[in-house]
Amino acid sequence: MRKKKKKPFGLALFAGLGVLASVLTFQMYHEAEAKAPSIKMKSQKSHLERSYDVSGKSFVETVKLGAIGDILIHDTVYEDAFVNPGYDFKPMLSNVKEYLIEPDLLLANQETLLGGVEIGLSSYPMFNSPVEVGEAFIDAGVDIVSNANNHSLDKSEKGVMASIKNMEAAGLPYVGSYKDDADKQKLRILNKNGINVSYLSYTYGTNGIPVPIGKDHLVNLIDREAMKAEIHRAKAESDVVVMSIHWGNEYQRFPTTEQKDLAQFLVDEGVDIIFGHHPHVLQPMDWLTATDGRKALVVYSLGNFLSGQMWDYKDIGGLATVEITKTITPEGNEIVLNNPEFIPTFVSSSRQRNYQVVPLQEAGKFGLAGAENKYNEIMHHMTQFIKE
C-alpha cells in the first residue's frame, strides 16, 4: 500500500503571504499619492539667460614688475664661467636669485649677443657671448630680455639671427631686435594675474654700424613716430606698457635733458614704465605725469648688472620693482602704479676671477670696503626724486 504524498502546505502559505503584501503595498501607495500635494517642475533657464546684479562690485588684480640692467659679458666673465666643454653662469647669480624670482615679471637688458661659440665668442668692442648666459638668467627668474642696444649689430645680421635662434631654443622671449618683419610686428605681451603687460624696446644707435637697407627689423632705432605708433598699438591690446630704452651718456650718473624730454614724450603717448640702459652706471628713478593725468615711473638707468667693468660705479647695478594694481569696475578699468623699490647690487670679483653678483648691502663680506656707506649713498641717489 503506497503512502499518500503530503501537500506542500508551507510553500503555498509563503506564496499567499507574498500576494497579500503586494496588494497592501499597492493600496498604501495610491492612498499616499492621493494625499500628497501636486508639485510641478519648472524648466531652468540656460546660463546665458540668467541675470545677476553686479552693480557696484569691483575686482582688483595686482602684479609686481621688475627690471635689471646691462648683461655685458666681457671675456674675463665668460672665461671665468668656463667648465669644459661649456659654460656655467648660474653660480654668478646664486647670491641674488632669491631677489630676482620675487617679481611676477622680470625684464633684463641683454647687451651682448648670445650667438654662442658657433660664430666665435668675443669681447669689447664687438661682443658675442655663450648661449649659457641666457640659460642662467632664465634660471634666475628673467622672463624677457630687451635686445635693442648699441651692440645689436656687432656681428652683423648673422649675429642677430644666431642670437635669436639660441634665445628661442632656450625659451627666452626677446624684444627690440627681430628676425623678420613679421616677428617685429608681433607685440610682446606677457600676462600675469589677469594683467596684460606689453614690452617695447628701442636704442639710440648701433655704434656707427649701419642697419642694412630694407632690414629695419634687425634693430629698433629711436624714432618718435615709429615709437608713437607702436605704443598706441600696445596700449590698445594691454593694460600696461613697458619701454626698455637704450639712451643717455655713458658713465654719467644723471639723465640728460634729451632723456628727460624723450621720457615725457613716451609717457604722454601711453607708456607706463620706462627702464633705461646704456650709461653703465645708475641714474635715479622718478615719477612723471602724463597729459591724461596718469602717473608713470621712469628709471633713467639701471647700470651694469653683470659685466667685467670695475670701479667708478660701473660695478654697481640693481633690481627696480613697482607694483601695478588693476581695478575692474562697472564704470571701467583703472591702472595704478605704487611702491617703487630698488635693491642695489655689486659685481664682486678677485683679480678678474670668481665673478659674483651680490646685494650691495652685503658686499662687505665679498671684499668691498665701506659697503654699508656705499649702500646708503646709492639708495639716496636712486630714490631722491620719488621720496614723498
UniProtKB/TrEMBL annotation:
Residues 1-21 form the signal peptide. Residues 64-309 form the Capsule synthesis protein CapA domain. Keywords: Signal. InterPro entries: Capsule_synth_CapA, CW_Biosynth-Accessory, Metallo-depent_PP-like. Pfam families: PGA_cap. Gene3D superfamilies: 3.60.21.10. CDD domains: MPP_CapA. The keyword Hydrolase does not apply. The keyword Plastid does not apply. Belongs to the CapA family. This is Capsule biosynthesis protein capA. It comes from Mesobacillus selenatarsenatis (strain DSM 18680 / JCM 14380 / FERM P-15431 / SF-1). The lineage of its organism: Bacteria, Bacillati, Bacillota, Bacilli, Bacillales.
